[in-house]
Amino acid sequence: MVLASEPQWLDKDIEVEAELEETVVYAVQDLMSQVWTNLLHNSIKFTPQGGRIAVRLQTLEQGIEVEIRDSGIGITGEELPRIFERFYKVDKARSASGGGSGLGLSLVKKIVDLHEGSINVTSRPGEGTAFVVRLPQQLK
Ligand SMILES: Nc1ncnc2c1ncn2[C@@H]1O[C@H](COP(=O)(O)OP(=O)(O)OP(=O)(O)O)[C@@H](O)[C@H]1O
Ligand SMILES: [Mg+2]
Predict the structure, then answer these.
(1) Of all protein residues, whose CA lies closest to atom 28 belonging to ligand 1?
(2) pLDDT per residue as tens digits for the range 22-66
(3) Which of 39, 102, 116, 127 could make a disulfide contact with 89, Cβ separation 3.0–4.6 Å?
């Protein structure tokens, strides 16, 4: 997942750091790979030249936790609760420059819910954004 996006971050001179524990998780693989791809693509898209992205996977007692953190433009507290809505984009003007449809995160949220997981986001404008996905290792 990280490697497949390599050309995109190399283009922007973004430094990517990955700390991935080996683990096993019960999930629909194709769907879960859409989650990581969407989150990573967002980080690349909203992080300016020369920024940093860190991906970390940890095993917890009750499942796994994946964090995707970037040093990008960030999201204001006002916008934050809305980013998982379908078609929601903070900067609508960017659609003209091929910025995407605003569907990515709504899909991410659906897939995570389907796996009985959770997704949380923290962000500071101008400093960066971190998404944390937690997944149970087995469905109940
Ligand atoms: N890592 C991030 N840093 C800053 N803003 C973000 C980040 N991830 C998402 N956003 C904001 O949340 C909005 C919604 O994200 P989402 O992935 O749903 O849509 P998109 O990336 O604009 O379009 P699509 O995913 O359909 O190509 C984005 O338009 C952006 O404003
Ligand atoms: Mg997106």
Answers:
(1) 89
(2) 888 888 888 999 999 999 999 999 999 999 999 999 999 889 999
(3) 102
CA of 102 to the centre of ligand 2 (A): 6
Per the structure, the count of domains in the chain is 1
Ligand 1: which of 5, 52, 105 to mutate, judged by most atoms within 8 Å of the beta carbon? 105
Residue 19's domain is classified under what CATH number?
3.30.565.10
Q: pTM for the whole thing?
A: 0.92
Domain range for 50: 3-136
Ligand 1 binding pocket mutation candidate from 69, 83, 133 (most atoms within 8 A of CB): 83
Nearest protein CA to atom 7 of ligand 1, as residue: 42
